[in-house]
Write a structure and sequence with these properties.
- The structure is a single chain.
- It contains four helices and six strands; from the N terminus they run ααβββααβββ.
- Helix 1 packs antiparallel against helix 2 and helix 3 packs antiparallel against helix 4.
- By secondary structure, it is of the alpha+beta class.
- It has a six-stranded antiparallel sheet with strand order 3-2-1-4-5-6.
């Protein structure tokens, strides 16, 4: 089951990446993940680690951590988060730049709900910001 979950997730990520336009591309990736059975994608920002909750088994993907050792968590900054989101949505940043922008805005983790089509960003002290993303049709 684990190998199946990983291969399905990898295929969905590849399909989503192939379908996504440079600007406004996230909904295409999220829709591809949803179709592959991913209900939630949770990202621990300082660790740069994803947890994909799927109907085929849950999968962890570990990226290069943003933080090692001790570091003070940045304060939640809604304005800086929205600036990072809009730059990413416009196609003006790479994914690593977007993650760094989230961290600089005080985002500790975020959760994508592919059924509700929402992404909720969380700060260290219970602050949060939620955005809906539009439904899209994949080719």
């Amino acid at each position: 089951m684990t190998t199946d979950a990983i291969s399905r997730l990898q295929s969905a990520m590849e399909r989503g990446a192939a379908a996504r336009p440079k600007a406004g591309g996230f909904p295409y990736l999220a829709e591809s993940l949803r179709r592959a059975g991913v209900s939630h994608c949770r990202m621990a920002v300082p660790a740069n680690a994803f947890l994909y909750l799927t109907e085929h088994g849950d999968v962890v993907v570990q990226g290069e951590p943003l933080v090692t050792g001790f570091e003070v968590a940045p304060q939640f900054d809604r304005t800086a988060l929205i600036t990072a989101l809009r730059a990413d949505q416009a196609g003006g940043t790479t994914f690593p730049e977007f993650v760094r922008g989230c961290w600089n805005a005080g985002i500790i983790w975020y959760d994508v709900d592919t059924t509700a089509r929402t992404c909720t960003y969380h700060g260290a002290n219970g602050e949060s910001y939620t955005e809906d993303y539009p439904p899209v049709t994949l080719p």
